[in-house]
Each structure stands twice: as C-alpha cells, then as structure tokens.
Design a protein that fits this description.
Blueprint: H1 16-35, E1 39-40, E2 46-48, H2 49-56, E3 66-68, E4 74-77, H3 82-91, E5 100-109, E6 121-130, H4 135-151, E7 159-165, H5 166-175, H6 183-191, H7 198-205, H8 212-220, H9 227-238, E8 245-247, E9 261-267, E10 274-280, H10 284-289, E11 295-301, H11 302-311, H12 313-326, E12 331-335, H13 341-353, E13 358-360, H14 367-376, E14 381-385, E15 391-396, E16 401-406, H15 410-426
The structure holds one RNA strand.
RNA sequence: GUGGCUGUAGCUCAGGGGUAGAGCCCCGGAUUGUGAUUCCGGUUGUCGCGGGUUCAAAUCCCGUCAGCCACCCCA
C-alpha cells in the first residue's frame, strides 16, 4: 500500500495557521512598501533559462528548476526576480517617470538541498528603485528595510543593518594594483575572510601583494572609506534610525553585479542569519535590457524572517495575535430551536451583510455544544435564535452577559456587544461577573 | 556534493530480543435553552522501507529512503 503522497523535498504545505502567518508577513511587507510610495508589480513564474544564464553564467543551471517544455524550449522556474525586473523596466522604461519605486511579493524556486531557513520553494519580497543614481535611493531602501523589521516588532536589540560599499572596495583594489580581471577573485577572497583561517587568507592574498593588515586597516576606516556610506548613514540617522545601522566593510556580498553600496540585515543573538540583503547594480539593466539605468534594490525571503519572528518574544506575540484573529469569527449564531432555522439563516445573512465574520452550526446540534464551538472559534458574541423569535438573545461571550432585542435591531446590538466584549478582554472595562478573562482573548 | 542525528497512533514521545504503549488531540456520553473543570467510554498503527542474524526482531546487523541540523553555496 502506498503511504499516500508527501510534498516534494523542500516544498511546503500551508495549513490555515501557516497561511495566516505567511499572510501576516506579506501584509507587513506590502503595507510598509506602500508607505514609501512603492507600487506593486509581478512577472511570470516561468522564464527562458537563458534569462538567468545571461546574468549569472552557466553554473547556476545546477541550481535551477529547469526543463524542456512541449515546444522544445529550455525554461526555468524563476530563482529570482531581478532579471525579470530588468527586462520589464527596460522594455517600457519610457512609460514611467523616474525614479521607479517598484516592489513585488512572489514565489521562487531553487534546486538546492533544503535546511533551516532555506527550501526549494520560498516567497520573497523584492524592492527596487530604478533610475536614481544618488545614494539617497540606497538610503531610502535601507530605511524601508529597517521599517519592515520595526513593523514586525523588532527593536535595536534584535537586528542590525550592516552596510558596505562595493565601489570603495574596487577603488581600494585598483589603488593596490589589482587588475580588472582579478577584481572579482579578489572580492571573493575578502568576502570569505571571516570564514578563512588567517594563514590561508594571507596565502590567498599573496598573488596580489596585499597584506592582511592592509585589508584590516581598510575595513577599520569604516564610513571614511566612502562618501556614499557617509551620505547613507547621515540620512538614516536623520530619520532616527542611526541605532540600527552599522558600517561594516567586511560585507562584500558574493554577487559580481553589485557596483556600489550593499547592505544586509542580520539578527542579533539568534545565530546572525542574514534576513535581507541587497545593493546597487547599475550595470544590470544595460546587460539584460539594453537600457542604461541606475538601479538598487534588496530582497527579503519569507523563511528566515518567519523563523525569527516566531523565535523573538514581542514579534512572535504580535504575529500570534493576528494569526488567531484571522482564524476566528466575531459572532456565532446559536440555533436553539430547529423550527427557527430559516429565521436563523436570515439573521446570519443580515450580520454578514454588515461585514461581520459569522459562523453557525449547519446541522442540528445540542445547545451546549454550540456554545462550546462558539468559544473555540473565538467569537466575542453569540446570537441565540429560539422559539421566542422575532425576539433574539445577544450574548457577550467574554462577560457572559446577555440581552434580548428584536431581530430588526440585531446588527446594532451585536456591534455594541462586540465592542464591549473587546474592551472587557482588553481589561478596559470591568468584567461584570468577575469571570477571569480567557487566555488568548486577553492582551 | 560532504558529514552528524533521528524515523513507533493525527501530534509529542516511551519501550533496546518474547503478541504495540502513554500523554495530548479528535469523537460520544454524564448535560433536551448556555461555554469551564471533572468523570466515563471510543477510534487510530504493515514500529519508514528492503534484506540478514535468531525458535522469536519495533529492538541486533547491513542496505536504502525520508526528515532535521551543519558544511559547501546562497542570485
């Protein structure tokens, strides 16, 4: 007997609770992006494999979900959005006023071994500014990233935005006589510095006649190494975000296409994982779309940030509250007399027409059971429909008080009751019966 | 691609040669117009899969698959 089907390796099922958590993250991304005047766009999930080869070279094919389609085309599930963005922006760049502020939330696929914080399928928030050369654009993106973290409930004890400048490194290398061809090799050595033993590091640098002490001195120069870094730091400080920012020239980022400031967001104390990263890539639109346009952007994946939210107290509680809310109803309609089920249906519809979230038992069910279900579904309020209809009973499930009213007033009565019960559960109003506020309803 | 740990009920896990266990969850009842607690009753398994040793394997051995973690990589 087959054991049934499982998800493919590295793919995830999203049960309602997981889906609610995912949507909480998505909504936060979208809300903050809108706050910064960014507009949302989306591209195809399937693209020609060549689009990715053009940017990253043939080696990435090993990391792609790629196949030949029925028209004999070599296609890939998208591993990233930037090439698509470059194509889209270049194709219609005359249609848009510069600079463009675009963001996207979508699913991506990479054929990799999956582990904590990394799967073969994930969602990513991409945020880019196109057509703006000033480092003020880099600062704007960095600020947006910081605000997402703050919106999720993180504070300056939880994360840092570490910023560096790829151009400063290029200048340094050129001064030291590193040739253009060797530049990316040199930058990779620097990028891996923290993970390399000192003697191996010195050995790797030897062909360039550069001493590790030169590198260390350069990294120690911090923001002095780059006017752009100073501009960004000053900008973020003016926004009151200075505590979140740290110049760290040891960040290079492996990517060959970065040309200017680069930044990463790291958690503090939970293993220092990269939560988000990005930078300036002024050459890429020319390479892919044939249009020269300055560009910078960053991305944040859903897996690491969701883990981090769950593992951090305040952000975890905030998310749990929204998740619980999204899985609850406000009103439960109790059918006390089966004869009145049609009338109950009418009341349910009235409440739903008023945009309330309403549930009810669909088949004959004992009264106690219905109240129990009401509570389990998180309802603030129950409406009891029985033989006395058109009189109905509206019960505040938190305070355990009830009133009767005519069915014509039921919407108003329910609305008032919900407000009262929310206040009781928040501790604003005294609980008339002295019943303990339930766990999960409080705070 | 390399290495470590783990696979037993829907979930968390115990059992380490002698007929498969606990808690939680779920369902029903005590309770025919009111939620909690409690109590009673009930369902669920090729012990990941394949082979070997043995009178006898969930248990020991070999292999394999899957999951988790770390390395490599990380657009």
């Amino acid at each position: 007997m087959a054991k049934g089907f499982q998800t493919l390796k590295g793919f995830r099922d999203f049960y309602p609770e997981d889906c609610a958590a995912r949507n909480y993250i998505f909504n936060t991304w979208r809300r903050v992006a809108h706050r910064y005047g960014f507009v949302e766009y989306e591209g195809p999930v399937l693209e020609p494999t060549d689009l990715y080869k053009k940017k990253s070279g043939d080696e990435i094919v090993g990391q792609l979900f790629c196949f030949t389609d029925k028209g004999d085309r070599d296609v890939s599930m998208r591993p990233e959005l930037t090439p698509t963005l470059a194509r889209m922006a270049a194709a219609r760049q005359r249609d848009f006023k510069k600079p463009l502020r675009w963001f996207s939330i979508g699913q991506f696929f990479r054929y990799e071994k999956h582990q904590k914080g990394r799967g073969r399928e994930f969602y990513q928030f991409n945020c880019d500014i196109l057509g703006e050369e000033s480092a003020a654009a880099d600062a704007e993106l960095a600020a947006l990233a910081v605000d997402i973290m703050r919106e999720l409930g993180f504070n300056e004890e939880d994360f840092r935005l570490r910023i560096s400048d790829r151009q400063a490194w290029t200048n340094f290398a050129t001064d030291k006589g590193v040739s253009d061809e060797d530049l990316s090799t040199f930058l990779q050595i620097v990028d891996k510095m923290e993970r390399t033993k000192p003697e191996d590091f010195a050995k790797a640098l030897a062909p360039f006649s550069i001493e590790p002490t030169d590198i260390e001195a350069f990294i120690a120069s911090g923001a002095d190494a780059s006017e752009n870094l100073q501009l960004i730091v000053n900008d973020l400080t003016a926004r009151g975000m200075g505590d979140y920012v740290e110049v760290d020239l040891s960040i290079v980022r492996g990517l060959a296409y970065y040309t200017g400031p680069v930044f990463e967001i790291f958690d503090i104390g939970k293993g220092m994982r990269a939560v988000a990263g990005g930078g300036r890539y002024d050459q890429l639109l020319g390479l892919i779309g044939g249009v020269d346009m300055a560009a910078c952007g960053f991305a944040m994946g859903d897996m690491v940030i969701t883990d981090l939210v769950r593992e951090t107290e305040e952000p975890g509680e905030m998310m749990a509250e929204v998740v619980a809310e999204s899985q609850s109803v406000e009103v439960y309609v109790v059918v006390a007399d089966e004869e009145k089920r049609p009338e109950a249906s009418r009341v349910i519809q009235l409440l739903r027409d008023s945009d309330l979230r309403v549930a009810s038992s669909m088949t004959p069910t004992k009264l106690g059971k219905q109240f129990q279900t009401a509570e389990q579904m998180g309802a603030y309020c129950a409406v009891l429909i029985g033989s006395e209809y058109p009189q109905v009973t509206v019960k505040n499930l938190v305070a355990r008080e009830e009133n009767t009213c005519d069915v014509e007033e039921v919407v108003d009565e329910v609305t008032d009751t919900i407000v009262e019960s929310e206040m009781v559960s928040l501790g604003i109003l005294d609980n008339p019966e002295g019943v303990e506020a339930e766990e999960g309803k409080s705070s």
